[in-house]
Design brief:
about 25% strand, Rossmann fold, binds adenosine-5'-triphosphate, 4-stranded antiparallel sheet, transport, ABC_transporter-like_ATP-bd, about 40% helix, about 230 residues, alpha/beta, 10 helices
Length: about 230
């Protein structure tokens, strides 16, 4: 279980997070929603040690993550998929996948690779090809697959749907839901695409100007017309 309590962070005079609390439990997806600049990316960057919080706590299975450096997080079971689908374009799909295991200090076992290829058959078909020929959706699958190679307990995803066709988003989110169910993964899903995110999430947290303004079960949030119109734009 990932627990964030009263986390605050600033960039100089800009207060990007103001006392934000959040939990991510095994087998559940917590969607973090909100407009541009709400603080969603800062929240993920603070959890993964890339932004130093000014206040608050972050713990993973009871361990204080503020004392753990970013590169040690995969070995503790926390993997992140940053925005932008960064892959090493001149390496093959499989070489990119294998990098995910290196980050966690382990090797990409054949069974783990097989599992990723089962989840994303298109990566299996393209495993010997260079990563730069992949489509946006395939790249997104590759970066998720790479993060999964370290066998994380908690997965942080930043805007995975950005710029993808709705059909591809539905496909990737469906896979994610299945994965969470099958592997008991805890997911924090940062999205501007609230509609898609809430279709697979268990809980929704809405940030506005760095503060949590709404926290509800996803189904309740979707069913509440006033909240949806006020904060989610659908
Ligand atoms: P987006 O969807 O655009 O990524 P977001 O919800 O992820 O938005 P953040 O990127 O976390 O929001 O930004 C929160 C606030 O912090 C904004 O006011 C933003 O302008 C500011 N901010 C973000 N990164 C920096 C930075 N490197 N330096 C200064 N201010 C920053």
């Amino acid at each position: 279980m990932l627990t964030v309590e009263n986390l605050s962070a600033s960039y100089g005079a800009v207060r990007a997070l103001d006392s934000v609390s959040l939990t991510a439990a095994p087998g559940e997806i917590t969607a973090v929603l909100g407009a541009n600049g709400a603080g969603k990316t800062t929240l993920l960057r603070a959890v993964s040690g890339l932004v130093r919080p000014t206040d608050g706590s972050i713990s993973l299975a009871g361990r204080d993550l503020r004392r753990v450096s970013t590169e040690d997080l995969p070995a503790l079971g926390l993997a992140q998929v940053p925005e932008g689908r960064g892959v090493l374009a001149e390496l093959t799909v499989e070489e990119n996948l294998r990098l995910g295991a290196l980050g966690a200090g382990g090797r990409a076992t054949a069974s783990r690779l097989r599992r990723i290829y089962e989840l994303f058959p298109v990566l299996d078909e393209r495993k010997s090809g260079l990563a730069h020929v992949l489509s946006g959706g395939e790249r997104q699958m590759l970066v998720i697959g790479r993060a999964l190679l370290s066998r994380p307990k908690v997965l942080l995803l930043d805007e995975p749907s950005l710029g993808l066709a709705p059909r591809i988003v539905t496909q990737i989110f469906g896979l994610l839901r299945g994965l969470v169910r099958d592997e008991g993964l805890a997911v924090v899903l940062v999205e501007q695409n609230a509609h898609s995110a809430l279709s697979i999430a268990d809980h929704g947290v809405v940030l506005n100007l760095g503060e949590v303004v709404v926290r509800r079960d996803a189904a309740e949030l979707v069913a509440d017309d006033d909240l949806r119109h006020a904060y989610l734009g659908f």
